[in-house]
């Protein structure tokens, strides 16, 4: 199992990039410190998480919750765009997407 | 009710008694101030025609006007919405139409609940101006029951925090001592109830966010069994842990609000199917006496003693003694895996947060910020928006969660944490073999001062959630009710029951509450200082 | 490098991911209508826009369709499966994660038989089929018109966001050699036919209901380990699939021949040039941080339900072909022509309505196909199986001969009504009026005494020489059999 408890600024920079959060150099160092301190503690979970223990992803087990294939209430175009920072031609206007086809 | 003076609530507001002896037991007619009545008393008075929904609503709006400058429990006050609902309730009552028993009793919603046409901020700059086009299920339900919405209460940003200081809309103060925090993240909800701005309030609890502020403010807070209340239209923090719950001034009132909120919702696949138990009846039964007789209270070894303030432990112990005197049996239970619960929580919660909060990117709704320099692309705008729109704690948790889920670390972190969850459930299952409910102090401390949370080491600060987190991991219901005071500040007493046994909490909780109230001669809140 | 040279030196391995949009009434996780068209951003709910607080709810019909697809591909159906979140930021993904399935797909371990043009059968191994949701659509708007200070931007429509998809992933397909491009194309065509037979999708390639991502890698020999692969995204016609695989094989071979190495990347196919171009390089950034979707609970298809679905599965194209070959007595070649012409359905229906298989095939692949080609129409636009069955019946009953039947078909194709309507309106029925026929026969006998003598002398084939004049006199409407009987009676009597 890979685990470790100290994060470098470079690793935090990569994570911030994955999480789409612009981050300053100063924040990088502080965040790396904070996260390292948290990770040093929480990594303890691996001590008791043995192979025999199944994972629980839902606290209350339910299964097969499905809905009928019946059309319900929809938003109007005006409602859909009501919170949009910018819109045009009934669509959401977003800045250019790099790597777009 | 037509002969009731229109300005009754407001005219009597000014000379409301500071500390009445038995405010909770007095009948509506004897009570000077409508805001001092419990929800159950308001319901009875409204149905009896002692006062109108409009009067009740105005009284609370006046109270809000009077104390909000000090408390700041609300992000948005919705007076017009509340008065419109109240007028509708009054009209229907006059016309003899069927009404919900609590129609006309005002309520507040934590500003995490989506309300169409009413700004919904999640306490964040990134949603500061977002006016949703739809209603969350819990808001639909309080509307359908005819509960006037007084406003949206303050919270830590996206419910992340234990002090409500992580809000983009200022601090909320603790009505018991305005130099202290009200707890969090449902700090606004708890403060609004403790300050008599609202009879009860809808909060959310992901790791203790209803119970801990209830403990800090001398109110009752409940985290129902996971799935008891729909999460549809409640802005998600950590999906597998979040649960909506009531804050109130009595166990019965909490049960009443839970009853209104609960029930299966096809929009939430994790909401429980089947009939909703009668929480209100259970609480009423518990309050009527004898509820503690023969009840086994399991004191969780891992949630007491070390790390808990002396005053907190003392108040908890004396409540236990009182329960024992009423016939309860006190047993100690051992839940060794709770030693890992906090760690598991601080992996699962940020992981789910990192994904749930990905949608706040400035593309479809909310704040959009362009980068100060460099190219303006969707990617850079997303990154700049999230950098500017999220507070430090939110960003910290997103980055932590991104790490815990990333390739190569998933098994060690998220995977292991989900296993700890299984262990916690097993420990609780074993403990409930020996005890009907498990008990502990709700929080290791009483309300702390402003700035304490932000200045301390993050892990030390997370320790404040140690007693409340296990219930969220296991999905079981938990309640905090006021045990007493420690140096003038309220101490919370937590009860936990097995999943689906929320009614047991209400019965035993109401029994303990009435024993405590009788012992001190009044409810704890009755001795809160006047604001 | 030339394709032939590339294939001579390298062994191609392909892998195909096919996405099919399911034809449910609503989306995968919300009750917005799943329909094509409509105003932008109108088929949306808070869920399909990813608004704060919105939660998904699984469409049971989509699960049923996924089970159908899994069964049709010979897959195991999971006893329990889950949804997972695939986390990545992109403006057309409203939640910035796609709700998909990761380590627990609903169906796995199947195979599908694919028939190539010459009748060779290739078995394609299926790794898995899983459920997921589609993304919205971006329209790129250039900056030349000066809008928003000349900056380029995109417009996003979320009508498609949340449309239910099933993604079908093959294991590496090995051993196809030079036929790799053909196999890839035939495989996707086979899937398309299966989706149609199952009635789980409109399955129209041109509308993007079925989209294919094609992985191609080369290795020096079938024993060598797999080479680095490229993934060509969204190739949307059978012909393009073939061309894209062919191009990639040649391109990669050229790189390897020059001593270079193939870059693991996504590529885009260009219809106009038949070439692929570099897209995005795969890197650490492709860390999707999959985890089980906490807002949804496991799907556990009950065994009885799966068996019920299995028992109601329609006949699949390959099974049907085998059955009809036996029932109809067509040759392999005839059957392939019928299938390639897309005429299996109308022919089967025509047979069901009473026509003989041979007659049904004859009319559909013959005269109707000819008329369709001439009119640039689909055969089924010109005639219905009911009309063709009626026509075949009229020929059978001796009311029409082939020549008249073709005229009747022309009338049917022109919209003049049913074959009998056309027949009576145009007066095309075989003449049964014995008076008119007898007059024509008498006249022919009188005009051709030499022929009559030959017949009397036992040369029966000479009767043919009388038929021309008889037909001419009756404007082709004489029943040749009746005329013959009459001649024999008159000469012999």
Short summary of the structure?
By secondary structure, chain A is mainly alpha-helical.
What report would you give on this structure?
Chain C: It catalyses: L-aspartyl-tRNA(Asn) + L-glutamine + ATP + H2O = L-asparaginyl-tRNA(Asn) + L-glutamate + ADP + phosphate + 2 H(+); L-glutamyl-tRNA(Gln) + L-glutamine + ATP + H2O = L-glutaminyl-tRNA(Gln) + L-glutamate + ADP + phosphate + H(+). Chain C: It comes from Brevibacterium pityocampae. Chain C: Belongs to the GatB/GatE family. GatB subfamily. Chain C: Its EC number is 6.3.5.-. Chain C: Keywords: ATP-binding, Ligase, Nucleotide-binding, Protein biosynthesis. The complex is a heterotrimer of chains A (101), B (531) and C (493). The mean pLDDT of chain A is 90. In chain A, helix 1 packs across helix 2. Chain A is flat and about 50 Å long. A two-stranded antiparallel ribbon of chain A has the order 2-3. Chain A contains 4 helices and 3 strands. Chain A is 37% helix and 9% strand. Chain A starts with 8 loop residues before the first helix and ends in a 6-residue tail after the last strand. In chain A, a hairpin with a 2-residue loop joins strand 2 and strand 3 (91-95). With 531 residues, chain B is an alpha/beta fold. Chain B has helices at 8-11, 39-48, 53-71, 79-94, 137-144, 187-194, 211-217, 251-261, 279-287, 310-325, 341-356, 378-389, 392-405, 411-434, 452-455, 458-462, 469-474, 502-520, and strands at 74-77, 107-110, 149-153, 200-205, 220-223, 243-248, 296-300, 329-333, 437-441, 478-486, 489-496. Chain B has an 11-stranded mixed β-sheet, sandwiched between helices. In chain B, a hairpin with a 2-residue loop joins strand 10 and strand 11 (489-496). The two termini of chain B are 31 Å apart. By secondary structure, chain C is of the alpha+beta class. Chain C has 3 domains: 3-309, no CATH class; 315-426, no CATH class; 434-492, Arc Repressor Mutant, subunit A (Orthogonal Bundle), CATH 1.10.10. Chain C is built from 17 helices and 15 strands. Chain C has helices at residues 3-9, 60-72, 180-198, 238-257, 303-311, 317-328, 332-340, 344-352, 357-375, 379-382, 385-396, 402-413, 419-426, 434-447, 449-456, 464-473, 480-492, and strands spanning 11-21, 58-59, 76-77, 84-87, 97-100, 107-115, 121-133, 137-141, 153-157, 164-170, 210-219, 230-235, 265-270, 275-281, 291-292. Classes of the chains: A mainly alpha (101), B alpha/beta (531), C alpha+beta (493). The interface between A and B is large, with 56 and 79 residues. Strand 3 (91-95) of chain A pairs antiparallel with strand 9 (153-157) of chain C, so a sheet runs across the interface.
């Amino acid at each position: 199992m890979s685990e470790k408890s100290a994060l470098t600024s470079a690793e935090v920079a990569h994570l911030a990039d994955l999480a789409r959060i612009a981050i300053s150099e100063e924040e990088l160092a502080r965040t790396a410190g904070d996260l390292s301190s948290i990770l040093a503690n929480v990594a303890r979970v691996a001590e008791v998480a043995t192979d025999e223990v199944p994972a629980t992803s839902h606290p209350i087990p339910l299964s097969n919750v499905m809905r009928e294939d019946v059309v319900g209430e929809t938003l109007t175009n005006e409602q859909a765009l009501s919170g949009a920072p910018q819109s045009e031609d009934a669509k959401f206007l977003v800045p250019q997407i790099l790597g777009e086809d | 009710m037509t002969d009731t003076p229109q300005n009754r609530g407001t005219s009597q507001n000014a000379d409301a008694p500071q500390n009445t002896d038995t405010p909770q037991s007095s009948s509506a007619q004897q009570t000077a101030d409508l805001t001092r009545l419990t929800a159950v008393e308001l319901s009875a008075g409204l149905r009896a025609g002692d006062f109108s929904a409009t009067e009740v609503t105005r009284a609370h709006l006046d109270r809000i006007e009077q104390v909000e400058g000090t408390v700041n429990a609300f992000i948005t006050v919705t007076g017009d919405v509340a008065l419109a609902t109240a007028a509708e309730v009054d009209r229907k009552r006059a016309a003899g139409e069927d009404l919900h028993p609590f129609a006309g009793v005002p309520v507040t919603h934590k500003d995490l609940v989506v309300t169409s046409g009413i700004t919904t901020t999640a306490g964040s700059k990134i949603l500061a101006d977002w006016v949703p086009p739809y209603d969350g299920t819990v808001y639909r339900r309080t509307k359908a029951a005819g509960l006037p919405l007084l406003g949206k209460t303050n919270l830590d940003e996206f419910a992340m925090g234990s002090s409500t200081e992580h809000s983009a809309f200022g601090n909320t103060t603790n009505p018991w001592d305005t130099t202290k925090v009200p707890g969090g993240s449902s700090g606004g909800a708890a403060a609004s109830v403790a300050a008599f701005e609202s009879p009860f309030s809808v909060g959310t609890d992901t790791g203790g966010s209803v119970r801990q502020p209830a403990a800090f403010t001398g109110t009752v807070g409940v985290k129902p069994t996971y799935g008891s209340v729909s999460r549809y239209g409640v802005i998600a923090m950590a999906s597998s842990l979040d649960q909506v719950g009531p804050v109130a001034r009595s166990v019965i009132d909490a049960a009443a609000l839970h009853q209104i909120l609960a029930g299966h919702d096809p929009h939430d696949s994790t909401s429980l199917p089947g009939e909703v138990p009668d929480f209100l009846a259970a609480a009423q039964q518990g309050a009527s006496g004898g509820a503690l007789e023969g009840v086994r209270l399991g004191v969780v070894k891992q949630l007491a003693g070390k790390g808990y303030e002396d005053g907190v432990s003392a108040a908890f112990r004396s409540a236990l003694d009182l329960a024992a005197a009423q016939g309860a049996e006190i047993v100690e239970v051992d839940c060794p895996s709770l030693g890992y619960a906090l760690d598991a929580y601080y992996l699962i919660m940020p992981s789910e947060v990192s994904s749930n909060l990905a949608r706040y990117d400035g593309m479809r709704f909310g704040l959009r910020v362009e980068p100060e320099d460099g190219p303006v692309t969707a990617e850079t705008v997303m990154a700049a928006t999230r950098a500017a729109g999220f507070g430090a704690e939110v960003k910290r948790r997103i980055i932590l969660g991104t790490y815990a889920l990333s390739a190569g670390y998933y098994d060690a972190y998220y995977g292991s944490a989900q296993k700890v969850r299984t262990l916690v459930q097993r420990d609780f299952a074993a403990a409930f073999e020996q005890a009907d409910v498990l008990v502990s102090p709700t929080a290791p401390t009483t309300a702390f001062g402003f700035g304490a949370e932000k200045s301390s080491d993050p892990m030390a600060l997370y320790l404040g959630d140690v007693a409340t987190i296990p219930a969220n991991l296991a999905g079981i219901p938990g309640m905090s009710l006021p045990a007493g005071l420690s140096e003038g500040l309220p101490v919370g007493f937590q009860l936990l029951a097995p999943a689906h046994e929320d009614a047991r909490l209400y019965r035993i909780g109401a029994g303990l509450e009435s024993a405590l109230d009788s012992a001190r001669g009044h409810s704890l809140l009755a001795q809160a200082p006047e604001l | 490098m030339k394709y032939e040279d590339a294939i001579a030196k390298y062994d191609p391995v392909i892998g195909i991911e096919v996405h099919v949009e399911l034809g449910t009434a609503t989306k995968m996780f919300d009750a917005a209508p799943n329909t094509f068209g409509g105003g932008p951003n109108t088929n949306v709910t808070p869920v399909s826009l990813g608004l704060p607080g919105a939660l998904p709810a699984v469409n049971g019909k989509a699960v049923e369709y996924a089970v159908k697809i899994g069964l049709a591909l010979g897959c195991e159906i999971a006893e329990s499966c889950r949804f997972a979140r695939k986390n990545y930021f992109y403006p057309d993904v409203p939640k910035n994660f796609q709700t998909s399935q990761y380590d627990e797909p609903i169906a796995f371990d199947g195979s599908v038989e694919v028939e190539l043009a010459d009748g060779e059968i290739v078995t394609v191994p299926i790794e898995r089929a899983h459920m997921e949701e589609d993304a919205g659509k971006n329209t790129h708007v250039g900056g030349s018109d000066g809008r928003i200070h000349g900056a380029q931007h995109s417009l996003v429509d979320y009508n498609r966001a949340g449309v239910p998809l099933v993604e079908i992933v093959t294991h590496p397909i090995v051993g196809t050699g030079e036929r790799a491009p053909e196999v890839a194309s035939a495989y996707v065509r086979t899937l398309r036919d299966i989706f149609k037979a199952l009635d789980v999708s409109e399955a129209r390639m041109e509308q993007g209901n079925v989209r294919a991502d094609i992985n191609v890698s080369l290795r020096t020999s079938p024993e060598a380990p797999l080479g680095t692969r490229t993934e060509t995204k969204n190739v949307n016609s059978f012909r393009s699939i073939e061309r894209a695989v062919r191009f990639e094989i040649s391109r990669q071979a050229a790189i390897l021949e020059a001593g270079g190495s193939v870059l693991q990347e996504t590529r885009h196919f260009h219809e106009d040039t038949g070439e692929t171009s570099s897209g995005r390089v795969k890197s650490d950034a492709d860390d999707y941080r999959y985890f089980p979707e906490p807002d949804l609970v496991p799907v556990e298809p009950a065994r009885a339900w799966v068996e019920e679905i299995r028992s109601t599965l329609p006949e699949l194209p390959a099974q049907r072909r085998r059955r009809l070959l036996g029932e109809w007595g067509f040759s392999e070649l005839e059957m392939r022509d019928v299938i390639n012409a897309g005429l299996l359905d109308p022919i089967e229906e025509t047979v069901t309505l009473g026509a003989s298989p041979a007659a049904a095939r004859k009319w559909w692949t013959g005269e109707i196909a000819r008329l369709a080609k001439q009119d640039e129409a689909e055969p089924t636009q010109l005639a219905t199986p009911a009309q063709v069955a009626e026509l075949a019946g009229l020929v059978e009953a001796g009311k029409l001969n082939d020549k008249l039947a073709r005229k009747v078909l022309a009338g049917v194709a022109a919209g003049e009504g049913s074959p009998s309507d056309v027949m009576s309106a145009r007066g095309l029925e075989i003449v049964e009026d014995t008076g008119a026929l007898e007059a024509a026969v008498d006249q022919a006998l009188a005009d051709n005494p030499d022929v009559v003598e030959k017949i009397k002398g036992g040369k029966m084939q000479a009767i043919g020489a009388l038929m021309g004049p008889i037909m001419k006199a009756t404007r082709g409407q004489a029943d040749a059999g009746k005329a013959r009987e009459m001649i024999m009676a008159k000469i012999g009597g």
